[in-house]
Design brief:
Helix content: 10-25%
Radius of gyration: 31 Å
Shape: elongated
Number of helices: 2
Structural class: alpha+beta
Distance between the termini: 85 Å
Strand content: 15-25%
Number of strands: 6
Length: about 140
């Protein structure tokens, strides 16, 4: 025989003995956290979890944008920190989070150094066939 019971209104499974399932005014007594997710949802009456989820969503959106634009794998990070202090029998719980979005990768440029250690876009020991040319010309744009 199991000692699990459930709340008839919400269907929530409540483990262990139920001392009181209703408050004096008839409202539902807040649940005890049985998972890490439940615990995080209790911090700041759910505002902490909502704020962290919003920032996580923004980071995920940015990762998708960069992945589509560059075709490269993207990395992001969400770090949750929960500090707890006892005050008598009570606990003070303070949550914090830090979101590290992906770093936008810049294009690579290949360059060479000449004998004077100056950087250049062309191989210094290789003869060039064409110099810098202008794309402007005397002709007008033609419709084909």
């Amino acid at each position: 025989m199991t000692d699990e019971q459930h709340d008839p209104e919400t269907g929530e499974v409540i483990e262990g003995e139920i001392v009181q399932d209703r408050a004096a005014d008839g409202g539902i007594v807040p649940y005890a956290a049985t998972t890490a997710g439940n615990f995080i949802d209790l911090i700041e009456d759910g505002q902490f979890a909502a704020d962290a989820r919003q920032e996580l969503g923004l980071m995920v959106g940015r990762m998708k944008e960069l992945a589509e634009a560059t075709g490269n794998k993207q990395k992001g990070r969400l770090v949750l920190t929960i500090d707890m202090t006892t005050e008598g029998e009570a606990f003070t719980v303070v949550g914090a989070f830090k979101v590290t979005p992906p770093k936008e990768t810049r294009r690579k440029t290949i360059m060479w150094a000449d004998d004077r250690h100056r950087m250049m876009r062309t191989q210094p020991r290789q003869k060039q066939f064409f110099g810098v040319r202008s794309v402007e010309g005397p002709g007008a744009v033609r419709k084909i």
